[in-house]
Amino acid sequence: MAETEGFEPKIVAFVCNWCTYLGADLAGTNRLEYPPNVRIIRLPCTGRIDFNLPIKAFETGADAVLVSGCHPGDCHYTSGNFHARRRWMLFRELLSTLGFDMDRIHFTWISAAEGRKWQQVITDITERTKQLGPYTLYAGNDGKADAAARSAAASRPVPPRTFEGQDALRASARRLLEAGIVKVVIGHGERGAPVFVTRPDETHQLAWNDRCQANLTTYLKRKEIRALGKPAIVVKGCDERALVVLEKESQVEREHVHVIGMACEGVGAARCTTCDVRTPRYADEVIGQVAGGAVSPDQRFQALAEFLRKSPAERMAYWAGELERCVKCYACRQVCPLCYCERCIADKNRPTVIDTSPTLKGNFAWQITRAFHLAARCVGCDECTRACPAGIDLRLLNLSLARAAEDQFGYRAGIDREAELPFGSFSLEDKETFIR
Amino acid sequence: MENIYRPDLIEVVGIRQETPDVKSVRARFVEAASAARFSFQVGQFGIFSAFGQGESTFNICSSSNWKDRIEFCFRRVGKVTEALWQIDEGDVIGFRGPYGNSYPMKAWEGRNLIFLGGGIAMPPIRCAIWYALENRERYGDITIVYGARTVADLVFVDELDQWATYDRVRVIRCVDPGGETPDWKGEIGFVPTVFDRANVPAENAVALVIGPPVMIKFTLPILDRMGLAPGDVYTSLENRMKCGLGKCGRCNAGPVYVCKEGPVFTLEQLKALPLDY
Amino acid sequence: MSDLISGAALRRLVDEWIGQGKRVAGPVLVKPDLPSYVYLAGGDRFLLDGFVRPVNSIKEFVFPRHEPICAYRFEGKQVRIADADAQIGDQIVIAARPCDAAALPILDHVFNWDCADEFYNRRRRATTVVTLACSTHDEACFCTSVGLGPAATRGSDAMLLDLGGGEYEVRVLTEKGRDAFAGKTITSDRIASEAPGPGKRFEAARVRRYVGEHFDGPIWARTTLACLGCGACAYSCPTCHCFDIVDEGNLNGGARVKNWDSCQFVTFTLHASGHNPRSAQPQRQRQRIFHKFRVYPDKFGDLLCTGCGSCGRNCAAGLGVLNVLEAIERDDGEHLQA
């Protein structure tokens, strides 16, 4: 792109207090000249950076963002930057999928002794950004006109096709309730909606058919359900993955839940065509038998690959079109089994981190935060996409981060009970080719 | 276009810190036209803005006879009140109001008035007290029982002293057991207990009771025992509000909109309300 | 004798309205399975058949999901306020469903109760509603249980009824409707037949009495366990109107805005002190039913519901008011015997 005459880019740098900030200071005391375009925001550590902060920078008109901290091994808090590096590895994928101009997003390690490096990096970024011109393409930019959002999703009623395990399921539920092993059986009803059966003579309410889309594990976090007592829960293989993550994140005590696993041939959702978890693996009992084979990552991420053929500008335009319809109903959050925070960051008002308004700015900020807070945690049950009344393709955002987690860390959420959670850990060998 | 949500600007002319987390604020309208057309009745509330942070609902705790200013009192407890805590004299904030219903000062004429308050609930009573004192001959005996957890939590302390100097006014102040200081001269005990042993005559009396739920819970039976009819016992309900105009739906409690049919309710009306507030 | 217009002529008329600078909204397939009311760029895409009802409602054209109330700027200790005075041009909603149109006169009450909300009124005045009568319904529809039907005219300025063969009877109902269609129709002797609506699912009067008597009853917890506490139902609903007021800006200034809100969120009634009168989902669900089927009609004489069924269709947990109301209907009989 041609250099815009007289254009002075605004660059926001999130830097850690102990290394990069002192490095910038050193540049100053050594009289090293560098362009004045950078606004420095000092944080104790790069590990503290929640990724709505760089997004806020773009919202308010930044043309480029830099995130910089101590070199690996030098972190003042020992491992903060290792955690940050992990996050950056995945966050970049999300930004790329959203259609951000990745030439405007930079990560560096700059130590307190590297005044010269600071000078070089800032000069370089400023030059590059001058060449790129002002950044006007972020759809969540504050200055953009807000479109009145449209919304809602249609569901077409189809007569349900009952699966073979239905009778066995009801018998199991009856047995569990009669014996007092559980106080409630959480299952699907005839139309797929959740039912909470507390009496043995009500187990006929339970159904097992192709309408059973809902991931019922989300109800394990609801206090009204917990109050009922020990539950039995009906899970498909995809639902069970959420249970695995919940257990690893200490939200569920496995012995306190009786898991009825249903072998599933598919409930007609997009994810079913590339499912490789047709039979639950950690259930207390499994009903039914379904043959299932391995599915390659390429097959599983095909929808994403097709999407990524779009240019960044096309991607951003796509997401602007999608998120214009978001009403901030938070159905995506409420239905997700892994969104269990007592008080969500979106509800936080001291300070207000994410605009509550259903403007493009507020919608982008929310969806980016939501997707990223589920990075390497989302199990791909697609409930958020099903729940969205505006039909927004949230699945694509989730796939993007799932692919990144698989590529970078060989990790698939909820598959292996023993696998370490990526964000609870880090490796000294994490790839940092994108970090200067 | 008439904008019912647009606030008036008011300038802070006085701030007083009443307790470690309570301040009272005196303000006057910036625009003379706003001042000229403004009037309110004691018991009504206003919605005050800390621009940039939001709005919050407070009773207008000044007497409606004071034409040059309005006053409100708040506890530092949330986003907006934190911002209000930082304001100085000369700062400009926002005001919408007056909203809600008011104390029936006209209907109370000729009656003996009993005011019972706890802690931060004094401000909404204070406006009624001043109004009554400023029209002293229209009202009978006035009894004020006001208490807080500790001495430091009492608000408008100097005014309590002033009120006691008026004719046929009895002021009893108290603190919870353990909340007294060595030089405390008032009563020690919870408001209901202190009120009970004060043996206030019940005949021809109306009572305004505002305070934390536990105080109300134990005070109402005493008033009942004294013989006050539920229609003669009043309170002011606190509720989460946004528009204050009966449109946004937030303060709908049972069948009423607190911002329109309240916040002043009689005990009789309150009994008909489900516990939705 | 009746007025008739062909589908093609109707689409040309929409183009004409847009050409006159009016904004026209109608149902389009935003995605293959997603009919939604949107502002139209032309008359070619909006739906005249093949759908039960869009996923959203037309309330957003008179009551936007986000609307600035005023702007404020800081100047030292001073604050300057400016009205957010957007110019509202004429707009027409075409092919609205009767259950959407009927919501507008119902909403008029709350926005004009005691004082008038001009943000709402000016849009309302500027809007002409042309409804498309329903020729079908699905299991979520229950307009007939709340006094409406497939060809209910409440809130409509003109109604289109499908005659088949790409032709529509036009019934002009108000001045605005007359203005919209003056000289655009041809006279005909064809009268459209009105489709039968869904069977009645509950008695509104029984619900009204029941919710008053069973405020603390066990039915709420029993029927609403599946509710996840999102805002999908409230935001799809043609009559839900609760809103939030927030300030958004920076150190220089910003705007005070109105946004849609929902009584199903846990923070809706949360006091700064921490007290929350509706801290459990069953209480919040109760509020929804109570407000729509008792408080609103007691105050304003209208149910706050048009039976469109969107709440049920859009609920990820398959709930919606209909489930609760049918449970009340069943429970009421049992209770009387108990």
Q: Provide the number of structural domains of chain A.
A: 3
| Strand order, sheet with most strands of chain A | 6-5-7-8-9
Strand content of chain A: 5-15%
Number of strands of chain A: 9
Distance between the termini of chain A: 24 Å
Structural class of chain C: alpha+beta
> Taking strands numbered 1, 2, ... along the chain, how are they ordered across the largest sheet of chain C?
3-2-6-7-8-9-1-10
Low-pLDDT residue spans of chain A: 144-156
Q: How is the main sheet of chain C built?
A: 8 strands, mixed
What is the CA-atom radius of gyration of chain C, in angstroms? 22 Å
- Percent helix of chain A, as a range, is 25-40%
Global outline of chain C: globular
Largest interface, counted by CB within 8 Å of the partner chain's CB: A-C, 48 and 51 residues
Percent helix of chain C: 25-40%
| Number of helical stretches of at least 4 residues of chain C | 11
Structural class of chain A: alpha/beta
How would you classify the quaternary structure?
heterotrimer
Q: Kindly state the mean pLDDT of chain C as a whole number?
A: 94
Keywords:
heterotrimer, A: 436 residues, alpha/beta, Rossmann fold, 5-stranded mixed beta sheet, 4-stranded parallel beta sheet, 33% helix, 10% strand, C: 338 residues, alpha+beta, 8-stranded mixed beta sheet, 4-stranded antiparallel beta sheet, 11 helices, globular
Question: How would you describe the overall organization of this protein?
Answer:
- The complex is a heterotrimer of chains A (436), B (277) and C (338).
- By secondary structure, chain A is of the alpha/beta class.
- Helices cover 33% and strands 10% of the residues of chain A.
- Chain A has helices at 20-29, 52-59, 80-98, 115-132, 166-178, 223-226, 237-248, 297-300, 302-307, 312-323, 331-335, 360-373, 383-387, 394-409; strands at 11-16, 38-43, 64-69, 105-109, 184-188, 194-197, 231-235, 258-262, 285-287.
- In chain A, strands 6-5-7-8-9 form a five-stranded mixed sheet. Chain A has a four-stranded parallel sheet with strand order 2-1-3-4, with helices on both faces.
- In chain A, helix 2 (52-59) packs antiparallel against helix 12 (360-373) and helix 3 packs across helix 14 (394-409).
- Chain A is elongated and about 80 Å long.
- Residues 144-156 of chain A have low confidence and may be disordered.
- Chain B is α/β, with parallel strands linked by helices and 277 residues long.
- Chain B is globular.
- Chain B starts with 7 loop residues before the first strand and ends in a 6-residue tail after the last helix.
- In chain B, 50% of the residues are buried.
- Chain C has one domain.
- Chain C is built from eleven helices and twelve strands.
- Chain C has helices spanning 7-19, 98-101, 103-112, 118-125, 175-181, 204-213, 219-223, 232-236, 281-300, 310-314, 320-337, and strands at residues 2-6, 23-31, 34-39, 66-75, 78-83, 91-96, 127-132, 158-164, 167-172, 186-188, 243-249, 253-260.
- In chain C, a hairpin with a 2-residue loop joins strand 8 and strand 9.
- Chain C starts with a strand and ends with a helix.
- The mean pLDDT of chain C is 94.
- Chains A and C meet through strand 6, helix 6, helix 11 and helix 13 of A and strand 3, helix 8, strand 11, strand 12 and helix 10 of C.
